[in-house]
Amino acid sequence: RGDLLYAIKPRVSSFGLGLCCRGRRRLWLDIDDRETEFRAEYDATHHVSWRRRARRQFKRARNLDDASYTRWMEELTGRAGVITANTRLLCDEFGAVHVPSAKDTALFDPARFDDDACRRELGLDPFRVIMFPGTPREHKGVEDVLEALDMLDWRDARLVIVGGREVGYLFGMYKKLR
Question: Strand pairing partners for 27?
Fold first, then answer.
């Protein structure tokens, strides 16, 4: 019954559904990432047999949030009344209005924490700490950081991952590096 539909991400499950259901309502679209590029990056660096690739493509075809469908939705972004994005790069690419990400900066204010106490509590006191704040995913370079640490032979360094909800990738990376 609302006057505005606000689709988050140019995906079939949000923007595509909005296009189908908008009727007389206005449809806005928010774009916060270039997710289609991440899939292409993965495909270019992971060589697999044609059988495995065919199975993967069949699975992906059933997933409406797959990058191939997202690319299709990106071609239809001109049908949104307004596009918003959280980076200038995406604004330039999609002709979007800049809406910065809202973060509670007071929550993470360094003045609220005792550095030494935090290091001791986490068992990081004797180490150099490299922090990754965010959701670790393949395209974000977490494995690259670990490989660089190994190449540099920095035995006194630890990568600390803060945040994120997808533990499957981390467990897979952990098994691979053991």
Answer: 5
Q: How far apart are CA 27 and CA 79, in angstroms?
A: 8
Residues sharing a CB contact under 8 Å with residue 134, sequence separation 6 or more, in sequence order: 140, 162, 163, 164
| Tokens 């918003």 found at | 84
Q: What is the pLDDT of residues 19-62, one digit of tens each?
A: 999 888 999 999 988 766 555 445 555 555 767 766 666 666 67
- Pairing of the two strands 157-162 and 128-133: parallel
Tell me how far apart the 2 most distant CA atoms of the chain are, in Å. 62
The span from the CA of 46 to the CA of 73, in Å, is 25
Helix (DSSP H) and strand (DSSP E) numbers for the chain? 8, 6
Q: Could you tell me whether strands 82-85 and 128-133 are parallel, antiparallel, or unpaired per DSSP bridges?
A: unpaired
Distance CA 79, CA 140 (A): 30
Global confidence as pTM: 0.58
What is the per-residue pLDDT across 128-168, written as a single tens digit (0 to 9) for each?
999 988 888 777 788 888 889 889 999 999 999 887 766 77
